[in-house]
Amino acid sequence: DCHQHTNRSCEECLKNVTCLWCASSGKCMEYPVRRVLPPADLCDLRSARWGVCWVNFEALIIAMSVVGGTILMVLGVCCCCCCCKKSKKQVSEGPDKDDERAAREREKRRVRQEERRAEMKSRHDEIRRKYGTVLTRTTQAKL
């Protein structure tokens, strides 16, 4: 079907989407669907046209590479930005968590110290009651 359009125009050849136009030889041929790119012995990439006459395969490959590379770079930059934001949040949250932990530890120590003081006071009071010691003002002041 495609061979009928050989030595005619590119537009007539490419009306059928299964056809490939080779500009250097003026041949219209079946596109080799088993291969992504047409082999060099069939038609040179600079001369091969498929889909539209104004874009050759060489320009198409270069354009697709540039677009694909740009997309990959944009995705990479976005991923890096997201990771940096997360790490900055973790760094800024870190001292707050450490401060909270330190405050809890201080409160625990303060509570334990008060409990010890209360125990010591109750022991001293018990000893005083046991031995009947009368506390003078100077002794009370020392305690």
Quick rundown:
It is a single-pass type I membrane protein. The protein is α+β, with helices and mostly antiparallel strands and about 140 residues long.
Number of domains: 2
Shape assignment: rod-shaped
- Helix and strand pattern: HEEEEHH
Strand order of the largest sheet: 2-1-3-4
Q: Could you give the count of β-strands?
A: 4
What does the largest sheet look like?
Answer: 4 strands, antiparallel
Give the count of helical stretches.
3
Question: Which parts are unreliable, with pLDDT below 50 for 5 consecutive residues or more?
Answer: none
Alpha carbon gyration radius: 44 Å
Binned, the helix content reads 55-70%
Distance between the termini: 114 Å
Averaged pLDDT, please?
84
Strand content: 5-15%
Structural classification: alpha+beta
Give your account of this protein's structure.
The chain has 143 residues and is of the alpha+beta class. The protein has two domains: 3-56; 95-142. Helices cover 59% and strands 11% of the residues. It has helices spanning 10-13, 57-131, 137-142, and strands at residues 19-22, 27-30, 48-50, 52-56. A four-stranded antiparallel beta sheet has the order 2-1-3-4. A hairpin with a 4-residue loop joins strand 1 and strand 2 (27-30). It is a single-pass type I membrane protein. It comes from Corythaeola cristata. Keywords: Glycoprotein, Membrane, Signal, Transmembrane, Transmembrane helix.
